[in-house]
Amino acid sequence: xxxxxxxxxxxxxxxxxxxxxxxNDKQCFSQALKPSYPCCKGNEVAYTDENGQxxxxxxxxxxxxxxxxxxxxxxxxxxxxxxxxxxxNVVYTDKDGKWGVExxxxxxxxxxxxxxxxxxxxNNATDFxxxxxxxxxxxxxxxxxxxxxxxxxxxxxxNMLEEGAEKNTYDQIHNVIGNLxxxxxxxxxxxxxxxxxxxxxxxxxxxxxxxxxxxxLKEKYDAEVKEDEFKDAKNVNxxxxxxxxxxxxxxxxxDMVQNPALxxxxxxxxxxxxxxxxxxxxxxxxxxxxxxxxxxKITATMMSNKVFNDVASYYIDDNITVLTMDLxxxxxxxxxxxxxxxxxxxSAYVESVSKAQINEIDEKLILASSAVDGVVITIPKFKxxxxxxxxxxxxxxxxxxxxxxxxxxxxxxxxxVPLFVSTAIHKADIDFTEKGVKAAAVTVFAITxxxxxxxxxxxxxxxxxxxxxxxxxDKNTKDNWFTGTVYEPNLWEKDRTSYGx
Length: 501
What we know:
This protein has helices spanning 133-140, 151-162, 167-177, 211-221, 234-243, 254-258, 346-352, 355-364, 390-396, 492-495; strands at residues 47-48, 53-57, 60-63, 92-93, 98-102, 105-108, 147-149, 193-202, 224-228, 264-275, 286-291, 297-307, 312-316, 320-330, 333-342, 366-367, 375-380, 382-387, 421-432, 436-447, 460-463, 468-474, 480-486. With 501 residues, it is of the alpha+beta class. A hairpin with a 4-residue loop joins strand 4 (92-93) and strand 5 (98-102). Helix 2 packs antiparallel against helix 3 (167-177).
């Protein structure tokens, strides 16, 4: 184990530094271990195990208090001061033997395991000729429940991660995002639109980060680079809250940033708070039927509007009902909302949906202005947040090495310490109302860092009264900011009092 060096990133795997100086006159338990570690000059505890209390000084482990190990077991590592593993999962091999990690601590693989070869999971890289990146997460977490995420935010996060990757780590990330078009540039619009990238680095480790990597993120992604002591998550959460227009709060836990091995956080945050081009009238909102996936009829809070112009469009056939509605134009940037309601099963539709299908729908959309008597829109209100099983999803897409403390190669971020992604977070929040749409998403990688006389009319009725998926995108570029599904809209019984019923 003398040459084993792992940098604690997020999961707090015990790092075994090399070439530690023994010039400390203090006596402590760590000097008697094999390999030996110096005694700390101070008494600040960073980690405790069966041997005693450990500190980190000058980026290296040191012992604080006595606490000899009484471990005895039948494996080579006991003589070196490490327990035997209960499992046979090998994560590292050196001249001493095969090593594993259990309960975030190194342990030796028992002799009885030596004839068992534990392989890493097969790299299940997604074939993008058959599916589309922006819908991949919709398919992987298709659990018939309200769901929301931001393909654009994830793409930004992965691109910034890729900039620091090398070799197989780079190849795996590039296999997922390499064929995607160049990232769009957006200028923030007051309290209406925000897109920001951030690199928040632990202050004492700032010099470990490659200046080339930092410059790349600044130049290509307009990333804000900040130093932080990481005493708690207050500053990080404030940055996220500000960049999401106050929508996403307290995303990061203190424990995450207080891990002494957390080097930095790579963050993308984006949000919109936009009004409809033609808002719904609150007086037209009322409880109406909505049919859940299992056929159960509930009374949902349904908004209604009658539209005559080009701010809405629709398409209806034997299989789907589609509705689009424009949000206001803000300084030349305009978004639209698209709802797609299959006649039968939304879950089955999600399994096969593709970008090509959406493009076909776009070609078939009929402007509301073409309906002589207008289009009556009925759609439920909804408000929810959702967090992807992001790390598992990325692994399913084939990005595995990035999360391995032994296989990750982020040497373009730092050539002084090995890095890996200890935590991956993606959370999104949406509020869909009569006034407009308020939505935000964050991606985080922890790198361990009129009225006229009434007449008889014959309008087209477009009613969204079953589970549906939706897209929120730039109307001109078709960049997909948000994708999701609605299975459980707001219940009228909970909302009716706010409407005076």
